[in-house]
Description:
- Helix 6 (130-142) packs antiparallel against helix 8.
- By secondary structure, the chain is mainly alpha-helical.
- It has 14 helices and three strands.
- The N and C termini lie far apart (78 Å).
- Strands 1-2-3 form a three-stranded antiparallel beta sheet, covered by helices on one side.
- The chain has two domains: 3-93, DNA polymerase, domain 1 (Orthogonal Bundle); 117-291, Intergrase catalytic core (hpI Integrase, Chain A, Orthogonal Bundle).
Amino acid sequence: MTIENQQTIDAIIREMNEILSFGKRAENTLITYRTYVYPFLEYCFEELDKSPYEATEKDVRSFIIAIQADRDLGDRTVNLIISSIHNLFQSVLDIPWNKYKVPFRSFDEFIPFIPAKEELETFISSTPDLKRKAIFAIMFAAGLRVSEACSLHCGDIVMSKKAVRVRPSKRRKERYIGLPDNCFDVIMKYYYSLPYESRRRLTTGSWLFPMKSDPERPVYTNFIIDYIPKAERSLGWEHRLSSHSFRRAFATHNYLDGNMTMEEIQSALGHRNISTTRIYVRQGIAALWPHHSNSINGMSL
Length: 301
């Protein structure tokens, strides 16, 4: 890679970041786009011996075939790559894009695992660390993403409303979700487990779940993600849970139990389109229906 080519790549990445930031894209989106655009730009110079400004859809297809084989990527990831390069072509390189020449991959849809309420109760109640326990309780009680739960501030727990405030994140929506009393109880147990001096220094802007080594930063999501399989093993369970299982369980159980309408679940989850919420619930029902009694049960036939 020549210095001139590297400078071109750096300039393209900077312009792409500037455009995406102007559109107020989430930081995770910026990271994802950079992850796949950067190797494509290198591929143009090193493998195709051409400037990215001269790239074609055929070059994109050859790059995808090469990177998929090299990294053993799934079709969902390939679709992320296509979206990233599509954005690059249109927003930075000003190259026409024919979607039929780089079609998105179709992939099999699998039913996600949705834990039963009894399983969630066992999992959360058996979590010994009160910080993790409070995070799990909030994730299930409010349908939060793990990143949203880990990034809560003390002031986001609104006692007067018995609710949690979720700041704008993935879809730039601020929202309030009601919390039941038992979830508040867990949060308060966690709060009073903190050393007195730590509690005394807390303000509404303090992180609710700070890092132990650096209280000025919230815990990483891996604090929760890496713990889940360990907890399952300690319970003698096979590994089926993910951090997103709690969010999906919130949507599915509240719908099946009649606690919330589809629109209310959409609002709580912060989905922009109700079609996304319907997918969550439909997949959840498909996963849970064997565990729910059939309407014919108890009938005298």
